[in-house]
Amino acid sequence: MPEQASGPQTPTSQRVGESRLPGVSRIVAVASGKGGVGKSTVSTNLASALHALGQRVGYADVDIYGPSAPIMLGVDGQPKPADSQGDMISPLEAHGMKVMSMGFFLNDSAPVVWRGPMVMSATKQFLHGVVWGDLDYLVVDLPPGTGDIPLTLAQEVTVDGAVIVTTPQDLALADVDRSVSMLAKVNAPVLGMVQNMSGYVCPHCSTRDDIFGGRPAEETAAALRVPLLGEIPIVEAIREGGDSGVPIVVGQPDHPASRAFLDLASKVQVAIERRAGASGSPEPDEIIHDKSRGVVRISWTDGATTEYALRGLRGWCPCATCQGHAGEVTFVETDDPKLTGAEGVGRYSVRFIWEDGHSTGMYPYDYLRQIADYPECKPS
Ligand code: ADP
User: Fold this and answer.
1) Which numbered atom of ligand 1 lies nearest the CA of 197?
2) What are the pLDDT digits (tens) for 261-277?
3) Are 242 and 222 contained in the same domain?
4) Entry pTM
5) How is the chain split among helix, strand and coil, in percent rounded to 5?
6) Is there a single domain that holds both residue 269 and residue 342?
7) 66 alpha carbon to ligand 1 midpoint, in Å?
């Protein structure tokens, strides 16, 4: 009797519908496993770089525990009501971008003692209670970690992509890994990671020095199983820009660090548009594990059905553990693999869980369609 595998729904019930803010085309969240890695520095410069690339940009700083937009973007004050009822407020403006920050509403000296429900309602206000106008990108600076705010964000609106900020010093990746998994679970597709403070660049001779050592960016990205979107060096001018309210991308657009941020912004744009295009592609409707035949059968939303012998499905596992970190995906033989489950990861891939404990393989939908034609996947 065929058995229904547990997918492709998300593993939690926080299914996010297509829910867009009026006038806002794309929402990009910037996240990190812990504080102090330069998440706000990266997000303010990423937003500025998107603006420099000709995009209409909004910036929502929902990091209630350390709101940094007022200082880093040099903007402060109380946003004004946008209508006579006072239901909506207008964002402030900085460097050509619309800006909202939890910092506009917090007293500098008061510690933040908000409880979960207050945090959630404040986050909703930031999304639905602000007249953002027409934006190509709304960049959201999330608090570090996996609290209520990212969850609320993903429940309220469609997040088109998330960027994870790490540093070479994140030697224990558990925190970052938790953030990546949380974002995937709430359907916020992780576009990739950017390694900040990636080596020191001498302001006098421009020599780069990995003074802190640490883990190379490619290795971290491979360990997290996400693409590497960029590396930002430690540069005094980046800190000075943040301290003075003029991001380096705005103040010194020709600085090599600004070029690194512009390059990051281009990659984010490409990744988001690629995903937006991909979301029109077929998705699994039903995944059936036919144990008696040793076959997984997937029915797709475009009406197609594909079948996979377990040997082929396991052998074409695309994960870094099976494939190493470089080159093309190759077939890796496993003796008599047995499948125990399947679950949807984000909106684009399925994770298969095997009896021997292997579960790191995330198979993008288009990859699953492709390998169905490979001889190893054909049911005998
Ligand atoms: P987070 O948002 O992760 O807490 P911040 O963006 O506030 O971190 O950065 C922490 C400090 O590190 C700030 O003083 C910032 O100016 C500095 N900083 C961040 N990235 C860099 C960098 N690449 N080069 C130099 N200073 C940096």
Assistant:
1) 23
2) 999 999 998 888 877 76
3) yes
4) 0.71
5) 30, 25, 45
6) no
7) 12
